Amino acid sequence: QTYTLEEVKMSKKDVKKAMEKKEKEAAAEPKEDKKPPEDPAKKLKKVIKEGGKRGVEIEGAADMGGLQFFCTSVDEPEGDVELLTKCVEAMNAKSDPTEEERK
Q1: Which of 18, 8, 83 is nearest to 50 (CA)?
Q2: In this structure, how many other beta carbons lie within 10 angstroms of the beta carbon of residue 90?
Q3: For residue 94, what are the CA distances in angstroms to 15, 33, 68?
Q4: pLDDT tens per residue, range 1-50
Q5: How confident is the model at residue 96 (pLDDT cuts 50, 70, 90)?
Q6: Where are the alpha helices (DSSP H) in 10-80?
Q7: Alpha-carbon distances of 88 from 32, 43, 51, 80, 98, rounded to whole Å
Q8: What angle is formed at CA 63 by the lines to CA 59 and CA 67, rounded to 5 degrees?
Q9: Which of 1, 10, 28, 51 is the most buried (most CB within 10 A)?
Q10: From CA 85, how far away is CA 88, in angstroms rounded?
């Protein structure tokens, strides 16, 4: 079992009281319903769009010069490895520099 710094400073009785208080608060707190699952097609579209944006962003930084390594993050895949792969593929897609809006 792990304790927070405050719990370490408290006596055992105080720790028990604090734990009971936390349990009561957790039980009294209404449980939030998770949001309904998003449509996979819409999710894939968002993932690809975000990947494209990151790719253009990285390409722009590289064009300014001196980019050897980079680190970036994406939010839309939310831990799904297949969606992350699609996102990285979108980052690697060639963009046409003559397009008005690159993505």
Answers
A1: 83
A2: 19
A3: 59, 41, 19
A4: 676 776 666 677 777 888 888 888 877 766 665 677 788 899 999 999 99
A5: confident
A6: 12-28, 40-64
A7: 33, 15, 6, 12, 23
A8: 80
A9: 51
A10: 5
